[in-house]
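stage 2 :: seqdesign
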């Protein structure tokens, strides 16, 4: 069997907060970029777009981290161990997918719709 790790709200909250901090650094660095001569209008538009998208991503990550912290006790659940799918079942599923692909290719060869 394949082991599935346990994930907690603490793990997710920490990862979202780290993502928020990373995006803030990127956003700040992009804001400090040199636009170059005014004749390079395309470069200015591209930097403006990157600044806008980075700001949106950063704000979204910060809001998400803040919401997790604000509602932590309400949404916190005890850790859940997901029961792994046995390797044999995964193997059978892969075989079924492969057979289905072969069937679809054969239908295409015979000119039949799928």
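stage 2 :: out
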């Amino acid at each position: 069997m394949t082991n599935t790790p346990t994930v907690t709200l603490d793990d997710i909250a920490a990862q979202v907060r780290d993502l928020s901090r990373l995006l803030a650094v990127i956003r700040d660095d992009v804001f400090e970029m040199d636009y170059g001569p005014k004749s390079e209008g395309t470069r200015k538009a591209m930097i403006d777009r990157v600044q806008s998208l980075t700001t949106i991503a950063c704000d979204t990550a910060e809001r998400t981290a803040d919401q997790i912290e604000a509602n932590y006790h309400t949404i916190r659940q005890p850790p859940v161990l997901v029961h792994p799918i046995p390797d044999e079942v995964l193997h059978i599923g892969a075989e079924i997918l492969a057979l289905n692909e072969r069937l679809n290719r054969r239908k295409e060869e015979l000119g039949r719709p799928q």
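stage 3 :: structure notes
- Residues 84-114 form one domain.
- The chain has two domains: 1-80, 84-114.
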